[in-house]
TrEMBL record:
Residues 12-332 form the Adenosine deaminase domain. Zn(2+) binds at H17, H19, H197, D278. The keyword Transmembrane helix does not apply. GO terms for molecular function: adenine deaminase activity; zinc ion binding. Belongs to the metallo-dependent hydrolases superfamily. Adenosine and AMP deaminases family. Adenine deaminase type 2 subfamily. This is Adenine deaminase. InterPro entries: A_deaminase_dom, ADE, Ado/ade_deaminase, Metal_Hydrolase. One of its GO terms (cellular component) is cytosol. Keywords: Hydrolase, Metal-binding, Nucleotide metabolism, Zinc. Its cofactor is Zn(2+).
Amino acid sequence: MTVTTSFLKQLPKVELHMHIEGSLEPELMFALAQRNNITLPYDSVDALKQAYNFSNLQSFLDLYYQGANVLQTEQDFFDLAMAYLKKCQQQHVQHVEIFFDPQTHTDRGIPFEVMFNGLHNAFEQGKHEFGISYELILCFLRHLSEDAALTTLEQAKPFKDRITGIGLDSSEVGHPPEKFKNAFAAAKAQGYRLVAHAGEEGPAQYIWDALNLLNVERIDHGVNCTQDPELMAHLVETKIPLTVCPNSNVRLKVFEKMEQHNLKALLERGLKVTLNSDDPAYFGGYMLENYLNVQNALDLTKEQWWQLTANAIDATFTSNARKVELYQQLDKVMAE
Ligand code: ADE
Ligand code: ZN
């Protein structure tokens, strides 16, 4: 069976690795800057887009944090999330697990509740209006200290019932998982599900450390696991999901070209690979654009698309009842 664009469009999609601040499109960034009387260091949307020419993770993060400065009010955070949810609706994304970075906002004086209420209200509306289920995952910024992470965990306490998990993102190399051992232990004690970025630019050892020192249940990215055959075997055996982000990896030069991406090889080796957009406004598109680019470059089979989707459903933090619904939607499209 050939894989058509229409099949890829129709597939029910589950996104497990998406930073809400990374869905800030240049047009919205300019609109929010105007609304909040902020001057951006770019003359136009086009000039900003020209700057999205990254050499590595850090060169992206510098612009990503700068862009987030336009987010000031609860309404700004709501509008940001609602724009993403509208994309999800268009692309048949049915369930999302969303990263947010409180420290990016609290460190510039935006109260935690302003950011959180805006995001949460949007995802509630998305659930009721579009039927898109969601979970929220708070990420610690790893270039900051463990004490700062523990402060953020404390600030999150009043909102704990609405936050499913804790993650770890930002500059990877030089900020190993070990640095956040205590913060992750505290998060686990409070009942959070745990994930961490590891093996995006960092070595395979960071993946081992995220698993063994932080006790995470999923690895975000993880593509550098191929450096260590023993780790590969461990990931297969333990069925630890990897939330892989192909467009991101190409844009940040983790792989030079999509044709060289190891997603298909990892899938064929039996790893629980899932496909995600990471920062869609910065990396050339949302879930569907990732699907189409992967298909063009790597020519997956229909069964492999089923497997990627099934892996994502299995890897979610949602209820078993919701997983059953998602599988029913998948079965329906596979049978068409
Ligand atoms: N924050 C947003 N996107 C990220 C990525 N790809 N890696 C690490 N931190 C991030
Ligand atoms: Zn990420």
